[in-house]
């Protein structure tokens, strides 16, 4: 089959392209402007020049492809940049859906567990957990826009689209060029962080997620089905301890308590008002990382053959990549 990947320069998109090299599928990717030479090195892939707003480019790619894996997106965990996030994550997804419908392509839409229900310290969430569980997700620009993107796919399915929605957890691994989620490991590795976020996340390897996405191409599963592709449920205190150890940094002193959370939230939001620029530390990100995004991937394991390699391997390989590429 011919497989077209959006977001090919990102962690998951690039990993998918590299995993597809070991299959019989032909591949192509969407690229905006000039990418760094190394990002697509070693790939026997065709490129389409454009972005998610370029409907003509997407139509051309869909005409070429049998399957589109839509992994491109904008991640901003904050209260600002909502319009920009909607343009990419909602409107861009709508353009991809329309192209798939026009040319009868299968769509594998990469969402995020941040659009699903959240878990707790005592119970994980899965695809059937009510969205308001534990108070629900923080309605920041990222969550709102990615949910809007999911809705575009669901509307497309009602119109005859062949598609699945795949929701990764917190991914780490090599091929994180920017870095994206690897930025957390980079920051923990560069400087000791005495206070870790209060909550937790579900850590998975981008290579394992990519394998499940590729398996979904030929999977005999109901159309329109959603899958959580998560992993090891860890507190940020546990994760930062393991990340720091790989860079010779001491473990954090403690998870953030109420005073630290209020201070960080207030400082971030006030700074955004003064400067007009919202940083990564703001009340939305503090609230989101105080939740427990802990998940059960049984459906994906059963129906897509999803597997998680040992967490130690993921952290070791991600740390090696960060050390080589970003230190």
3D structure, described in words:
- The protein is of the alpha/beta class and 327 residues long.
- It has one domain: NAD(P)-binding Rossmann-like Domain (Rossmann fold), CATH 3.40.50.
- It is built from eleven helices and twelve strands.
- The strands form three sheets. Strands 3-2-1-4-5-6-10 form a seven-stranded parallel beta sheet, sandwiched between helices. It has a three-stranded mixed beta sheet with strand order 7-9-11.
- Strand 5, helix 4 (141-158) and strand 6 (162-168) form a beta-alpha-beta unit.
- It is globular, with a radius of gyration of 19 Å.
- The mean pLDDT is 97.
Question: Short description, anyone?
Answer:
The protein has 327 residues and is of the alpha/beta class. The protein has eleven helices and twelve strands.
Short descriptors:
single chain, about 325 residues, Rossmann fold, 3-stranded mixed β-sheet
What is the assembly state of the chains in this entry? single chain
**Strand line-up in the sheet with most strands:** 3-2-1-4-5-6-10
Q: What's the CATH architecture name?
A: 3-Layer(aba) Sandwich
What name goes with the CATH superfamily?
A: NAD(P)-binding Rossmann-like Domain
- List the total number of helices: 11
Number of E strands: 12
Q: State the CATH topology.
A: Rossmann fold
The low-confidence parts are none
Counting helices, strands and paired strands, the structural category is alpha/beta
CATH C-level label: Alpha Beta
Q: Can you tell me the number of structural domains? A: 1
Give the helix level as a range of percent.
40-55%
End-to-end C-alpha gap: 39 Å
Rg for CA atoms: 19 Å
The average pLDDT is: 97
Order of helices and strands: EHEEHEHEHEEHEEHEEHEHHHH
């Amino acid at each position: 089959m011919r497989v077209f990947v959006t977001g090919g320069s990102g962690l998951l998109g690039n990993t998918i392209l590299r995993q597809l090299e070991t299959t019989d599928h032909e591949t192509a990717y969407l690229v905006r402007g000039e990418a760094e030479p190394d990002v697509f090195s070693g790939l026997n892939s065709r490129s389409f020049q454009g972005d998610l707003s370029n409907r003509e480019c997407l139509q051309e790619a869909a005409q070429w492809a049998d399957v589109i894996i839509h992994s491109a997106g904008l991640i901003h965990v904050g209260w600002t940049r909502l319009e920009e996030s909607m343009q990419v994550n909602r409107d861009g997804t709508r353009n991809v859906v329309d192209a798939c419908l026009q040319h009868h392509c299968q769509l594998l839409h990469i969402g995020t567990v941040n659009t699903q229900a959240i878990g707790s310290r005592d119970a994980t969430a899965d695809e059937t957990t009510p969205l308001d569980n534990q108070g629900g997700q923080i309605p920041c620009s990222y969550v709102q826009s990615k949910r809007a993107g999911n809705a575009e796919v669901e509307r497309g399915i009602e119109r005859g689209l062949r598609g699945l929605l795949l929701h990764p957890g917190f991914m780490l691994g090599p091929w994180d060029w920017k870095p994206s989620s690897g930025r957390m490991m980079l920051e923990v590795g560069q400087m000791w962080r005495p206070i870790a976020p209060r909550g937790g996340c579900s850590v998975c390897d981008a290579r394992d997620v990519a394998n499940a996405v590729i398996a979904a191409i030929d999977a005999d599963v109901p159309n329109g089905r959603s899958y959580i592709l998560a992993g090891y449920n860890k507190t940020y205190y546990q994760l930062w301890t393991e990340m720091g150890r790989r860079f010779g940094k001491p473990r954090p002193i403690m998870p953030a308590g109420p005073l630290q959370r209020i201070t960080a939230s207030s400082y971030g939001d006030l700074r955004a008002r003064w400067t007009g620029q919202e940083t990564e530390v703001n009340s939305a990100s503090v609230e989101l990382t105080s939740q427990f995004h802990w998940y059960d991937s049984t459906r994906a394991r059963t129906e897509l053959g999803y597997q998680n390699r040992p967490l130690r391997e993921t952290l070791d390989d991600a740390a090696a990549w960060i050390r080589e590429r970003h230190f």
